[in-house]
TrEMBL record:
Entry's family note: Belongs to the cyclic nucleotide phosphodiesterase class-III family.
SUPFAM superfamilies tied to this protein: Metallo-dependent phosphatases
UniProt cross-references to Pfam families, sorted A to Z: Metallophos (PF00149)
Name of the protein this chain belongs to: Phosphodiesterase
Cited InterPro entries: Calcineurin-like_PHP, CNP_phosphodiesterase-III, GpdQ/CpdA-like, Metallo-depent_PP-like
Listed Gene3D superfamilies: 3.60.21.10
Annotated CDD domains: MPP_GpdQ
């Protein structure tokens, strides 16, 4: 069995409030009686993309690195250059130039407990919506083709389908059909994992399970949960994370509030 802990959207912003919520999730995972194979964080690790925020993130996440393998992909609040410099030590990631004169997309692949996890950079510099650039799609296609017999989980920040959350749906993944075409060529893909939604959600995409991690910084509210003057999200709900279990062709997910 391969066990992947999945959390998302800590939005570390230099304040103790955001750090305290993230530390609750980190302490839960660092204190597990048993080990998980890896911890996946699907983006919006920081809130404004500054180097100072990434240094805070490195400090807050440090206990995870001491105990577990940690996998990351960026979200729309992340910034590629300081993300790569502070969190990845100046290395990591591939996928070609981003076409805007900035840093290249941060795409990574790791083999974890018999499963290949492919983390795609769906961020668009300066924009809240997501897009998988041509270079990222080519990288994903090649990385999947390189291990056709290994079960694969594809991770990105932006959900590629609407989730019934109007604010999030307006800034989801653009051109999802391009991703669907790549996935259709690789029968070993088990599921797609994402963040951005600030709520645990399960649906399907390209004939595969699509599993969204709950939020660390806040929890998104569905329209019928909101009052007339309410925000789309609440900080009153506790941080939460998911555990994905893969065994003998089956993926099972559990959600834990911490």
């Amino acid at each position: 069995m391969t066990v992947l802990a999945h959390l998302s959207d800590p939005h570390l912003d230099g304040t103790e409030e955001s750090a305290a919520r993230a530390r609750r999730a980190v302490a839960h995972l660092a204190g597990l009686p048993g080990r998980v194979d890896a911890v996946l964080i699907t983006g919006d690790i920081v809130d404004r993309g500054t180097a100072e925020e990434y240094h805070q993130a490195r400090e807050v996440l440090a206990p995870l690195y001491e105990r577990h393998e940690v996998l990351l992909c960026p979200g729309n609040h992340d910034s590629r250059a300081p993300y790569r410099e502070v969190l990845l030590g100046g290395g990591g990631g591939g996928g070609g130039d981003d076409g805007s004169g900035g840093a290249a997309p941060v795409n990574e692949v790791r083999d974890v407990g018999g499963v290949r996890v492919l983390m795609c950079d769906s961020s668009v510099p300066g924009r809240p919506e997501g897009l998988l650039e041509a270079a990222t799609l080519s990288w994903l296609d090649d990385a999947l083709a390189a291990a056709p017999d290994r079960p694969a989980l594809v991770a990105l920040h932006h959900p590629p389908v609407p989730l019934g959350l109007p604010y999030i749906d307006r800034i989801g993944l653009r051109e999802p059909d391009a991703l669907a075409k790549v996935l259709a060529r690789h029968a070993q893909v088990v599921a797609v994992l994402c963040g951005h939604a600030h709520t645990a959600a399960a649906t399907s995409f390209a004939g595969l399970p699509l599993l969204c991690a709950p939020g660390i910084a806040s929890t998104a509210l569905l329209p019928w949960e909101q009052g007339p003057d309410a925000s789309w999200k609440t900080h009153g709900a506790p941080p939460a994370l998911a555990f994905h279990l893969y065994e003998e062709g089956r993926l099972t997910s559990h959600v834990r509030a911490v």
